[in-house]
Amino acid sequence: MILRLPSALPLGLIGSLLLFLGSFGGGATRNRGGILEALHLDFLAYGRGAGVSNVVFWAGVAFLLAGWIILGRRHVLRGTGGEGGVEKQVRQTMWLWILPLLPAAPMLSRDVYSYLMQGAMMRDGFDPYTQGAAVNPGPYLLEVSHDWRNTTTPYGPLHLWIGEGVTRLVGDHVTAGVLVYKVISVLGFAAIAWAVPRIARALGGDPALALWLGVANPVMILHMIGGMHNESVMVGLVSLGLLACLHQRFLAGVALIAVAVSLKATAAIALPFVVWLATLHYARRLPRVVAFLVTGFVGLVETLAVVAAVTWLSGSSWGWLSEISGNSKVINPLALPSLLASWVTWVVQVVDTGFEYNTALAVLRNISLVAMLAGLVIVWWLFRQNARRALAGTALAYQVAFVFNSVTLPWYYASVITLVGAVRPPEWVLRLAVGASIVVTLAFTGSGNHQLYNTWWMAGVFVLAWLLTDWAFGRDFTGPWPAPGAAPPGPADRAGHRPDAPAESRPR
Question: InterPro entries, alphabetically (predicted)?
Answer without folding.
Answer: MptA-like (IPR017822), MptA/B-like (IPR049829)
